[in-house]
Each structure stands twice: as structure tokens, then as C-alpha cells.
Design brief:
Elements (H helix, E strand, L loop, with lengths): L18 E11 L21 E10 L2 E7 H5 L8 E4 L3 E5 L1 E3 L11 H8 L4 H6 L8 H6 L2 H17 L2 E7 L6 H16 L4 E9 L10 H17 L33 E5 L7 H13 L3 E6 L17 E4 L5 H7 L5 E4 L1 H7 L7 H7 L3 E3 L13 H12 L3 H8 L1 H6 L17 E5 L5 H4 L6 E6 L2 E3 L1
Parallel strand pairs: 1-4, 1-5, 6-7, 7-8, 8-9, 9-10, 10-11, 11-12, 12-13
Antiparallel strand pairs: 1-2, 2-3, 5-14, 14-15, 15-16
Helix pairs in contact: 5-6, 7-8, 12-13
Bound molecules: N-(iminomethyl)-L-glutamic acid (NIG) and fe (iii) ion.
């Protein structure tokens, strides 16, 4: 049997014949583009799933070769000798894009969990020494290999629930060495996972305890050491004696499944108790100057103004629980995606959820992601996020699916390759046991994902 496997061969990944035909899908959600639009979807376009009944997809060499009704696709030359998978009683759609995750950690935060149940807030727990800082020790002591094992386990759990592309942040090391090791581990895990991983440096997650009274010094390390190290894979950061970690391998020129740099994006947590607007702007400027993309955790616990951030053209503003009406109006004219993370609100036991309806009705492009992390959202499940978004933020199932696929790809600026089922795009596909797309957001705390294809490689 021909195989297209990448990285190490593990038993969760089955080899795939080079040409596969998925046929007789009850509903095939193509999410094909309307009127040639190439930016993120907004407004009425977020309700267009491009549904084909009795649909079929032909996969060849890791790409989508044809999409249409079963009758149409079966006539394709390559379909004649393809391995067939009957998708009757199934919904077939683009794999989920989980565009905001923090998988580089080692242990669950159970003390925080119990304290919150007993009534403490997220910020109170952090001030008492829990929170993000409580995850540092495990990461600083872990080897790259041990961290990569944790990351890979998370990626596999995500794929089992329909996810085929993941953005993965560092942010629990918070020293030059531990952040680089975290990114190294993300890269190592990505090389063993058949889907695409987009790595992000979140060195500015919080100020680590040893810099508590000298946050400026820590910001300098982020700007002058961490960011240059990830941006420049060929040399040491200017003015630093440190060696670039071993993960910096030459970029691959094939189909892009491997990260080419240790990080493609830089993220900052702008919040009381994390980084100020002024510090964040310095960090984002350093990233943009070296050609990295930027994304921002903002308006999660308290309001912040977005205007001072717009000059950096963030791919995404994430959380957005406290975004103002004025900023919503501004965002409706931009391609920056608002990435909502309702599983974090669920897990923190909050009564309020992100203002999805306001954003959508104003025409802001919205994405959904898990925020997989040990403090606010220990779930790898995009279907759970769809459920939370529909039930608690009043997104429609169609809007939630667009937000979890195509707009997630836009939030990572990869919509030309990912996020819809169209000829020439990567074969990132999820098959669900369902006859109607609304079921994807309806069932919860169960896993109805039957199979995923990640760059054409199947996972049962
Ligand atoms: O997105 N807000 C910052 N980062 C994470 C939480 C991280 C943690 O508590 O470990 C978030 O919710
Ligand atoms: Fe987050």
C-alpha cells in the first residue's frame, strides 16, 4: 500500500492509499467561497456552508482533487481506482481549525480548580501564586522530549474530535531557554502529527515571579532575545551569547505541514496582572519589525482599547469578552478576526460569555477555538466549543461551523490552503456521524467524529 505518512509511524495514524474517494455524504459542507472572496467571512456569508447532498470528495496526494455530488465526482479519472469510503449517514466537512491553544504544559492545575470551586476568582488564584506561574516549574524542569510527548498527546486528542490544524503557543516557560524549549517541543510534536501546526511565541504570557518587580527587564528579554531568536533561524539573537536551540532545522520546501520557523506569530496577554498596553506595543512592534505575524489576548477579564494595537495588523484579537461597541464598529471594516473562546468562560464558571451576536451582527469576522490550556480551558474538543458557542453566545450552528473552520484558517492567514473543501486545497477533512450539520453543535460531551483526514492522511 502506498503511504504518505510523515514523521514517525505511530499506531494512531493509519497509512492511506494515495487516492481516496469519500462518497454518498448525507451533507457535504464545502464552505466554498462566495463571489471569489478571499478574506474572512462576515455577516450573511457566515451562514453559507455550501452544502452538497449526496456529496463526494476525491483525495489525491494529500490534496483535494474534486468535490461535487457523488455522480459528478465518480466520473473523475482518478476516482476509478480510488479507495472508497461510504459516508452515507454522515456529514463531511473541512477539518476544524483550532486557532488558539496552549499545549506546552505538563500538569493539570488541580489546586486552582478546587480553589475556584470554593469561590476564588481566576485573578485571586493568580495573585496567590496559582495561575500561569504555577505551570512554570513543570515546564522549566521538563526535557524537550517530555514536553513534546504532552503536545503530541493533545494534538492526537484534537484530531480524534475533528481538528486538522492547530495553532500552538509556548508561554509556560517564561525564560529564554524554557520558551525556546517549548517551541522546540511544539515543532518536534508537529513533525510526528500529520496535520498542520502553526507555532506562536507567547513569551509575554505573564511576568515570571523572578521579574515581578522589574517587568521592564523581562519585556526587554522578550523583545531583544526571544523574538529575534524565533524570527531568525540562522543565528543567535543580537547581543546574546545564547545558542539557537536544536529545533531550528532548515525549512522544508514541500507542502508546508512543518513549521518553517520556531514561531510564525507572537502573542501578548494584555491584562491587569499581565502586560500593559505600552509594554505590549513594544513587544508587538519588535515582532512586526522582524517579519513575524501578531495576535493578542485582549479584553478577557477587563476592557481594553484596541486602537493602539491596530497599526500592527494583528491576525486575530482573542477572547474579546469586554470589547467596546466603538471597537466593534472599527473591527467590522478590518480583516482582523475576533477569536472567541467560550470553553474558557464555561470552565471558569462565568455567567457571561463573549458578545458573539454583537460582533456578528456588526459584520466582524468571528472564529472559534478551544483555548486548550491547564488554567482556563482543559479541553481539546472543537465540537464542545460549537455547543458552548451556540448555547451560550447564540451563534447559529452554521455560523459556528464557519467560525471553527474557514475563519479559523483566516485567523492563521492560511485560508488559501485550509478551511474549505475546494479542489487544490489540502485534504483536511472530518467525517461525523450525523445527517444534518446542526447535529455537530447539538450533541455534546460525546464524540461523533468518525474519521479525520489530515493532509490526506487518515486517522480513525
Ligand atoms: O487564554 N489568558 C491567558 N492565557 C490563557 C490562560 C492560561 C492559564 O491560565 O494557564 C487563556 O485563558
Ligand atoms: Fe489563551
Amino acid at each position: 500500500m502506498d503511504t504518505q505518512e510523515k514523521g514517525s509511524h505511530r499506531d494512531t495514524v493509519r497509512s492511506t492509499p494515495q487516492t481516496t474517494l469519500l462518497l454518498h455524504a448525507e451533507q457535504l459542507l464545502t464552505l466554498r467561497s462566495t463571489a471569489g472572496a478571499s478574506g474572512p467571512r462576515r455577516g450573511a456569508d457566515m451562514r453559507e456552508l455550501g452544502i452538497i447532498e449526496d456529496g463526494a470528495v476525491l483525495i489525491a496526494d494529500g490534496k483535494i482533487a474534486a468535490v461535487g455530488t457523488t455522480d459528478e465526482v465518480a466520473k473523475h479519472e482518478l476516482a476509478k481506482h480510488a479507495h472508497e469510503i461510504d459516508c452515507s449517514h454522515n456529514v463531511v466537512l473541512p477539518g476544524f481549525v483550532d486557532s488558539h491553544t496552549h499545549p506546552a504544559f505538563t500538569t493539570p492545575r488541580l489546586i486552582d480548580f478546587e480553589k475556584r470551586i470554593a469561590g476564588a476568582s481566576y485573578e485571586e488564584i493568580a495573585e496567590a501564586g496559582g495561575g500561569i506561574s504555577a505551570s512554570l516549574r513543570g515546564v522549566r524542569e521538563a526535557s524537550t522530549e517530555a514536553l513534546a510527548t504532552h503536545v503530541l498527546k493533545a494534538l492526537d486528542e484534537m484530531a480524534a474530535q475533528g481538528t486538522t490544524m492547530v495553532e500552538a503557543k509556548s508561554g509556560y516557560g517564561l525564560s529564554f531557554a524554557a520558551e525556546m524549549r517549548s517551541l522546540d517541543a511544539i515543532r518536534d510534536a508537529a513533525q510526528q502529527w500529520p496535520g498542520k501546526v502553526v507555532p506562536t511565541l507567547l513569551g509575554a504570557h505573564v511576568v515570571p515571579p523572578e521579574y515581578r518587580d522589574r517587568s521592564e527587564e523581562y519585556v526587554r528579554i522578550v523583545c531583544e532575545e526571544m523574538i529575534p531568536a524565533v524570527a531568525n533561524s540562522n543565528g543567535s539573537p543580537p547581543g546574546s551569547e545564547k545558542q539557537i536551540p536544536r529545533g531550528l532545522k532548515p525549512a522544508r520546501d514541500d507542502n508546508s505541514s512543518f513549521p518553517t520557523r520556531l514561531a510564525e506569530f507572537v502573542d501578548v496577554f494584555i491584562e491587569r496582572g499581565a502586560f500593559t498596553m505600552e509594554q505590549s506595543r513594544r513587544i508587538l512592534r519588535a515582532a512586526v519589525q522582524l517579519g513575524l505575524g501578531v495576535r493578542v489576548h485582549v479584553c478577557q477579564l477587563t476592557p481594553a482599547e484596541l486602537a493602539p494595537l491596530l497599526e500592527f495588523h494583528p491576525a486575530s484579537f482573542d477572547h474579546m469578552d469586554y470589547v467596546s461597541d466603538e471597537d466593534i464598529a472599527v473591527l467590522s471594516k478590518l480583516d482582523t478576526v475576533a477569536t472567541l473562546l467560550p470553553a474558557a468562560n464555561y470552565f471558569l464558571g462565568l455567567k457571561d460569555f463573549p458578545p458573539a451576536r454583537k460582533l456578528l451582527d456588526a459584520g466582524v469576522p468571528v472564529a472559534l477555538a478551544t483555548d486548550y490550556n491547564p488554567g482556563t480551558s482543559p479541553t481539546p474538543s472543537m465540537p464542545f466549543v460549537l455547543s458552548a458557542a451556540c448555547t451560550h453566545t447564540k451563534m447559529s450552528p452554521a455560523e459556528a461551523i464557519v467560525a471553527a473552520t474557514y475563519n479559523g484558517a483566516c485567523a492563521l492567514r492560511l485560508q488559501h490552503q485550509k478551511g474549505s473543501l475546494e479542489p487544490g486545497k489540502d485534504a483536511d477533512i472530518a467525517i461525523f456521524e450525523a445527517e444534518d450539520y446542526r447535529e455537530l453543535a447539538y450533541w455534546f460531551a460525546t464524540n461523533r467524529c468518525r474519521q479525520t483526514f489530515l493532509n490526506g492522511i487518515t486517522r480513525l
